[in-house]
Amino acid sequence: MLHRPKLSPAARREALTFYLCISPWLIGVTVFVIGPMIASLFLSFTDWDLFSAPVFSGARNYQQLAQDPLIWQSLKVTITYTALYVPTELIGGLLLAILMNQQIRGIRFFRAVFYLPSVLSGVAYVIVWMWLLHPQAGLINTVLRWFGIEGPRWLLDPRTALIALWMMSVWGLGRTAVIYLAGLQSIPRELIEAAAIDGATRLQIFRRVTVPLLSPTIFFNLVLSIIATFQTFTSAFVATGGTGSPLDSTLFFVMYLYRQAFVMNNMGYASAMAWVLFLIILLLTLLIVRSARRWVYYEGARSEA
Amino acid sequence: MVTGHSALRRVLSTSILVFTAGLFLTPLIWMISSSLKPTYAVLAVPPTLLPNPVKWSNYPEALSIVPFGRFMLNSLFVSVVTVIGHLFSCTLIAYGFARLRAPGRDALFWVVLATMMLPYPVTMVPTFMLFHALGWIDTFLPLTVPAFFGSPFYIFLLRQFFLTLPPELEDAARIDGANTLQIITRIVVPLSGPAMATVAIFTFQATWNDFLGPLIYLGNQRLFTVTLGLNQFRQSYTTDWAYLMAASLVTMLPIVVIFLIGQKYFVQGIALTGMKG
After folding, report:
1. What is this structure's pTM?
2. What is the domain partition of chain B in residue ranges?
3. How close B84 comes to chain A (CA, Å)?
4. I need a labelling partner for A97 at 20 to 30 A (CA). Which of A25, B167, B258, B266 fits?
5. H/E segment holding residue A294
């Protein structure tokens, strides 16, 4: 601040206009983001039920958290599901995008078909899948029965409940696929043609040309996907009526946080949970960003390699 | 130059495309079929593909058990106000970041990007306390007011778009004595139809489908949005799948219509933001 050259009157006016323009955001980010984050850090060191004054309790919430079996269960559920779903989203989304990128008549119709389910996300989406996954009359087990397989009870069986939620999410892959499609379409055709002339097979072109050029998009999808999957809530909440049943096998971390905060009114404990979630997501994001240098290819940044 | 080999490949890849598209459409087709079956037929094992007899009255019946009309209106209100809020605030904010120079601008833009990554549950509890202290629980205010203070994703999207506009028009207007607000409303907004449409459509879709927000802030059934109403309906009519499918389809309908009309804006929005990571 001290060494900044003095701004001319015109530049001063422009700066003032800038701050006026962004003032809604400045207020919003203070009131709805930074303020709440500081407040929740403070609250995480208190006992508070929303109705009486918060009581300072030191690190007790965090100690309790480490001993709460449901915290560990909800972390296990969330991490297992993330490990299951994120690779599916990255690979499945890319495969879908390759299908969507074909040059054939009517491709626009197919793109719409793949993309449509992802905009339907919400409660209705989950209810449709509860019906498809119905153990007796559901379509999925009906099809399995054609092949002589008696399907599992999906959402009602602790061993398959997460897999059922995973199948549910796959229907929404279109959104990721469209991001990949934009990436695929920005790859210059000459590069692919040049590789083909040099005698590369399709698989080689895919691995050596397409994937490296798509790596920024893959990186973007990976970060978004992990952040979103760690916050899974609606699907499990609607499918289990908020219980995380059976046997807490679908008790996601955010569902448990919701229960602590808004069912049990343990606002202090819920705030501590929120900070744990934040730190986990932050750590994972930083790890990915750090690893990006090794596998994400940026045009023009290649000369020193 | 179509050889037998590549013709075969073409047939194969088209078949995979058609098959996958069939898989993606099946849940919707199944939903429509189930929604038209009589209660006794919907649970039949094995199920039939076509409803026989077709029971159209499932729709009026399902929608009158709980006040779905009211829920739709509530959702419509919250979504439209949120769209207006985002268009107003994000345009102004994004223009500032795209065009006006000021000390601290780039650092602040990094803060915008960082908040885009912030998980919603982290601020959920204190934000609830704030609205609780303001006496806003059981009103639409907690769901709509924040929209007027910008949203990082849409600020980013609009800024990217504004950067692609030629600055000459704005410079000319400024020389003619127009102020920033006039430049935004008379030059930038008319040129930004597609980007604004993208923001409107994304916002509408996200707000219409939002469940956690209404779940936290709305307890009075009169104020329920469609997601809350549908969830309540599901918990009380767990086995009436025909009704559940009919009600679910009706709540999806506005989004399907918007999707069919504005499909290109969805795709455009993703291309605009997804690429630059």
Report:
1. 0.91
2. 4-59, 62-274
3. 14
4. B258
5. helix A267-295
Q: Mean pLDDT by 10-residue block, N- to C-terminus, for chain A (305 residues)? A: 70 92 96 93 90 87 95 97 96 94 88 92 93 93 93 94 95 91 87 88 88 89 92 94 90 96 94 95 92 79 42
For residue B30, list chain A residues with Cβ-Cβ distance below 8 A.
128, 131-132, 139
Q: Which of residues 190-209 of B touch A (CB under 8 A)?
A: 205, 208-209
Candidates B205, B13, B246; CA nearest to A116 is B205
B177 touches chain A (CB under 8 A): no
Q: Which of B137, B101, B121, B88 is nearest to A28 (CA)?
A: B88
All residues of chain B having their beta carbon less than 8 Å from the beta carbon of residue A39 are: 126, 129
Quick one: closest CA in B to A140, which residue?
A: B27
Cβ within 8 Å, pair A178-B209: no
Closest CA to B95 of B149, B161, B145, B151: B161
Which of A4, A7, A18, A49 is most worth mutating to test chain B (most B CB atoms within 10 A of its CB)? A18
DSSP A106-157: THHHHHHHHHHHHHTTTHHHHHHHHHHT-TTT-HHHHHHHHTT-----GGGS
Residue by residue, DSSP assigns A192-219 as: HHHHHHTT--HHHHIIIIIHHHHHHHHH
Which residues in chain A have their CB less than 8 angstroms from residue B125's CB?
36, 40, 43, 261, 267, 270-271, 274
* Domain annotation for chain A: domains and CATH numbers: 62-295 (1.10.3720.10)
The CATH number assigned to the domain with range B62-274 reads 1.10.3720.10
Interface test with A, best of B32, B125, B148 (most A CBs within 10 A): B125
C-beta of residue A151 within 8 angstroms of C-beta of residue A133: no
Q: Which residues contact A127 (CB under 8 A, 6 or more apart)?
A: A238, B230, B234, B244, B245, B248
Q: What six digits make up the tokens of B191?
A: 């040129």
